[in-house]
Amino acid sequence: MTLTIGIDVGSGAVKSTLFRVEDGKAEWLARRCDRIRRRDPMVLAQEGRDAVIEEAGLSPDDVDYIATTGEGENVKFATGHFYSMTTHARGGVFLQPGISAVVDVGALNGRAIYVDERGKVLAYKMTSQCASGSGQFLENIARYLGVAVEEIGELSKSSKDPEKCSSICAVLAETDVINMVSRGIATPDILKGIHLSMASRIVKLLKVTGIKQGTALLTGGLALDVGLLAAIQEEMVNEKVGVQAVSHPDSIYAGAIGAALWGAFRHERLQELQEQVAA
Question: 37, 121, 131, 267 — which has fewest CB within 10 A?
Fold first, then answer.
């Protein structure tokens, strides 16, 4: 039996998970998500570790491996670090077995990851650094429009005449939105237009990876944005891509889940090597 913690330090939040892995079966014991909001991510990582251990009724000494991902390579108490693309792939397959792709839409960028049934990365494509298809950009626009982040999805879905945002640069895209407001474009139509612009880029990323059918799971901070999910599903039809886009209530934890599971795998392999050396 292996007890392992996965910590995903993102640009907007720190996610922590605790798993028990035994005979190839993983059991989720605890989870925690903390929005950063100008707080120190390293402190939040430590608080997340302590919280999941306490929730599971364990002590720090019980944990065999602590794995980080995302921007967590500087977490001092970690046992090891994994690249976020591989952790989102593994976490996505855990949450939604049988998927063909993971679409990670985070605070700063988006990426499409083509995976096999084990969560191995077959191909991937990321947005550019200046792309406006990110969670931070959407939050900035919502703040300008006076809309709570939690309201974005439903408002977008209520749109009757979406106004697409053409710029791929976040700064220019924000200028586009200011112009839309000055022209009297309704807030739902602005948000739906932004979602459609983001969805168009995401679908293009998926096509570049080579995936043509199957299911793509949304992960990352925007995974539960129902407006974005609906826009992606709409763009899939428009682009004649035979891929079904879905989300999961725990999609935001995909990176932390993958880190924990890869950590358990590495711990078990290291134990096997040590036993071979001792023999």
Answer: 37
